C-alpha cells in the first residue's frame, strides 16, 4: 500500500497540501503579528521547495525527464531571489 502511495505521487501531493496550509496560516497569522511577511516573501520562501517537490513527483510518476529538469531548473531562480531578499 505505501509503495503505491509513493509510486502514484500521492505522497508528494500530501506534502504540497501541507505547504499550502502553511502558506495560508502564515498569511493569516502574519496579519496579526508585528513583523509581517509580505506575500512575495512567503512565496519566495516556499517556492523552491514546491518546485523540488514537483520534480520529485514527476520522477516518481515516470514523467519525461524534461519535466523533472524544468521543475529543478525553476527552483533555482526562486532560491536566488529568496537569498537576495534575505541579503545572504
Q: Uncertain segments of ≥5 residues (pLDDT<50)?
A: none
Beta-strand percent range: under 5%
Helix content: over 70%
Order of helices and strands: HHHH
Structural class: mainly alpha
Can you tell me about this structure?
The chain has 88 residues and is mainly α. The protein has 4 helices and no strands. It is 81% helix and 0% strand. It has one domain (2-86).
What are its keywords?
81% helix; flat; 88 residues; mainly alpha
In short:
It is built from 4 helices and no strands.
Furnish the topology, listing elements before pairings.
Elements: H1 2-7, H2 10-30, H3 39-60, H4 65-86
Helix pairs in contact: 2-3, 3-4
Amino acid at each position: 500500500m505505501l509503495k503505491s502511495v509513493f509510486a502514484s505521487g500521492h505522497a508528494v501531493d500530501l506534502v504540497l497540501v501541507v505547504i499550502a496550509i502553511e502558506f495560508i496560516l502564515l498569511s493569516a497569522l502574519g496579519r496579526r503579528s508585528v513583523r509581517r511577511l509580505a506575500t512575495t516573501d512567503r512565496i519566495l520562501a516556499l517556492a523552491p521547495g514546491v518546485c523540488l517537490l514537483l520534480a520529485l513527483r514527476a520522477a516518481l510518476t515516470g514523467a519525461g525527464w524534461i519535466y523533472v529538469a524544468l521543475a529543478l531548473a525553476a527552483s533555482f531562480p526562486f532560491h536566488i531571489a529568496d537569498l537576495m531578499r534575505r541579503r545572504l
